[in-house]
Amino acid sequence: MEELQDASIHHTAAKLINTIKTLKNYEPLYENVQKLVCSPAVDRNDMCNTLEEAIKSAGLETEIRNIIFHLVRSKLKPEEKPSQININDPLAYLKRAGVQWDRRVRKSLNAMCSELKMASQGQPRVATDRDELMTKWDELSNYTIDLANYRPVYAPKDILDVLLSLKGPSKAVENTEQVPKWEFSHISLPVKNLFELRNHYNDLLRTESYGGSTDMNLQCQRVLESKHAPLCQHLLRKGNTPAPYRGALWSYVLGSHINNFDIDHWNRLKATVLSTDHIVDKLVFKDIQLTASNDDQYFVFEDVLYQVLLCFSRDTEIAQMIQFEHYPIKGKNYEAPPSGVVPFHGICMFAAPFCYLFDSPINLYFTFRAFYIRYCHRLTTINTHPQGIVSICLLFEKLLQTHEPQLWSHFRELQIQPIRVVFKWLMRAFSGHLPPDQLLVLWDLILGFDSLEILSIFAIIILSFRKESLMQVNSLDNIEAILADLSSIQVLPLIQLALSRD
C-alpha cells in the first residue's frame, strides 16, 4: 500500500513539474531560483537545506505554492474527450446537446457575417477607422459606429428554451405521466441536498464574531502580506470583505496578478483590435449599449468596458483554457471568434462589476478573464459540469420542491416553470439584478467556496422571502413584477438564513 502511495505522489509531482514548465511564469521563476543558487545565502556543501531556506526568505516558496494551488484546482483535472459515442452514457444526450448548441451559436454568427458581407475571421481595418479607434481608445463611447443591422446572437431565454426542450432517456410510462415536461427531473446529474450544502458552506453558519471593520481590515492586511492564495480564498468566505482589499484578494485567488508578459499580451490584443475589423466588435458595442450603458450603476464604466470586451474577443488563450464539452457528432463545423466565445446578450455584465475593483484596465482584464473562464463560461453553455448551468438549475428545482413545496405547487397549478422566473439571475450570476455592493459580496462567496451552488441557494431564499406576495398572484408577469426589484436584498443574512432552515 505504501509503495502505491509513493508511486502516486511521484506521478503527481512529475505531472506538476511538467505542467509548471509550460507556464508563462516558469522562466522568470526559474531565473530567480538560479540567482539564489549563485548567491552567498546558499552553501554548496549544504545545497539542499540552504537553498530551501533561501527560497523561503525570497518569497519564492509562496509563489510556488500559489502556482500549485491554481494548477490543482484546474489544469491537472482530467478532461473527458471521448473518441466515440458511448450509448450507455446516461448523459450522452446532454453532452450532444451542448455540442449542438455551440455549433448552432457559431452557425448564427457565421450567417450574420454572410448577411452583412463580412469575413467570419475578420478583415484588415481601413486606415481611417483604425486611426479613429486609436485616437478614441480611452473614450470609445465617442467612437462612430453603425449598429442598426446587428443583433445579439443569443440571450438567456434562448439557452433556457433549449434546456427545457431536452429529452432524456425514455422512462416507464407510469413515471413520465407524473413528471411535467418542463421539469429537470430526467437529468441524472448529481446535486447536493441541503444537508450537504450546509457542510460545504459551514463557515457561513459559525456563530463566532469576526470582529468589527477595523479587525477585518487588519486581517486583510496580514493575509495580503502573506501573498498566500489559499488564505485569501478562506478570508473571502466571511462575506464581509472591506472594499479596498477585495480586488487584491480576488487577484490572488484567481492567480491574475500582472507580470510583464501580461502587459505585453494586453498590448498585442489591443494591436489586434486596432488592425483587424471583426464582427464581434459590433456585437460588443451593441451589448454594452443595450445593457451596461443603460444601467445606473455601470454606465460610467462604458469606455473601459469597450476596451476590456474588445480585447477579450481577440484573446486566443481563452479558447485554449476553456473546457468545452466534448462529444463527437457529425456535421459542418463553423468558425468561432478568436477567443472561442461568441458574444451574447449580457456578456458585458460579467465584466462590469470588476470596474468597482480596479482602476487599471489591464488588472481588470486579467482578473475578469480568469473569473469568466472558471465560472461564467459554465453558466453560459450547455454542459455536464457539476458547477454548470444545468446542474445549477437542477439544484434550484430540487431545493424548491423540497423546502418550498407550497410555492412549487403554486407554480405547477399555474403551469409556470419556476426556472423561467430565476434563470436570468442564475445565468448572469445576479449581475445587473443586485446592487454592486451586494453582488460583490455574493461573488466573494463564489470565490471563497469555489462554487456556483450559492446562486441556487440565493435564488430560493429570495422566493421564500417574497413567498406571501407570490402566492397571491397567478400570472408570470405579476410574479416577475414582484421579483423585479432586488435593491433592498442583503446577501449574507439571507444566505445564512437559507442554510440554517430545517
Q: What best-fitting shape do the alpha-carbon axes yield?
A: globular
> Which band does the percent of strand residues land in?
under 5%
**N-to-C order of helices and strands:** HHHHHEHHHHHHHHEHHHHHHHHHHHHH
Task: Classify the helix fraction into a percent range.
Answer: 55-70%
What value does the Rg take, in angstroms?
A: 24 Å
The SS-based structural class is mainly alpha
| Number of structural domains | 3
Q: Number of helical segments? A: 26
Q: How many individual β-strands? A: 2
Round the mean pLDDT to the nearest integer and report it.
88
Descriptive overview:
The structure is a single chain. This protein is mainly α and 502 residues long. The protein has three domains: 1-75, no CATH class; 91-166 and 258-379, no CATH class; 194-236 and 383-500, Cyclin A, domain 1. It has 26 helices and two strands. The protein has helices spanning 2-20, 26-37, 47-57, 60-73, 92-115, 127-135, 156-165, 173-176, 194-200, 213-226, 229-236, 243-254, 260-275, 279-290, 302-314, 316-321, 348-351, 361-379, 389-403, 405-413, 418-427, 436-449, 453-465, 467-470, 476-483, 491-500; strands at residues 123-124, 276-277. The protein has a two-stranded antiparallel ribbon with strand order 1-2.
